[in-house]
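Table S2 (continued). Query chain:
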Amino acid sequence: MGEMKSFQLGVIGALFLSVASSVSIVICNKALMSNLGFPFATTLTSWHLMVTYCTLHLAHRLNFFENKPIDMKTVVLFGILNGVSIGLLNLSLGFNSIGFYQMTKLAIIPFTVLLETLFLNKQFSKKIKLSLFLLLLGVGIASITDLQLNLVGSVLSLLAIVTTCVGQILTNTIQKRLNVSSTQLLYQSAPFQAAVLFVSGPVVDKFLTRLNVFSFHYSPVVLGFIILSCMIAVAVNFSTFLVIGKTSPVTYQVLGHLKTCLVLAFGYTLLHDPFTPRNVFGILVAVFGMILYSYFCSLELKSKQASSDDKVKDKDTTPLLGQEKENHEAKKTDKHSLV
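Corresponding output:
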């Protein structure tokens, strides 16, 4: 029972860190890109991952965590896959309208459910599916404005969905099958993710913005925001692996849409971004879907815990019954021997 409570506290802590850090980095990057004119998102992400690796390397040297070796082939392929997925998402945003890009992000949840059902034999109850539908419906109403389709953008979106889903499923699977922590997996895979984006980032950014990241004028204010963004990114990357490892890829995506709603609400209330009753209605529907999802997941978790407890009790009881039978037979034998 104590382990269960500790696990739940760990999950809550991971979820809180993920939400807080993600909303913070969105606000920081919005100031950096919109107000200060730094549009190089892919290159910035590579710097995020480099700083994350350096921070974890320092933590490892100071013995904050123990590094557990993982098969190099697994780590390299996993790191490259995650790096490619980030690049594809940025390209998808560049080739598609904002509305279609939001649809791409929404499609990650049902596609993840499909992949886990087909290849991992994971079952999702009708209640969970209903709550996910309400969540996606609400986020769609709140955030999707226009839908403009084109062949290249559609192909990039499809590739982004596939690589993102597979990457997040592997994040969960590798941690559980190889018994490694989120910190250990992130520490070993971050250099390869960073390398992919460091090489491709300037090319992708120049293609999307027509600007060269190396010829940009880096004022002290811009540098300050880049450093702040990198520092927050350490918490974002760490919490991402932590949440997926402790929960599931689907739960992480649900959390991602909660962040979207929080960022939209922040923009409406504090930054006075334009909004309509449709936006507010969509956010309310999405939040209701998230509450239902959390409630149904909690019920299923308690049900599984109760089932496992019953199995443990049955295992503990069976040997006792067998021992009692042996004792009874021994008593009978003793009686006959006395006679």
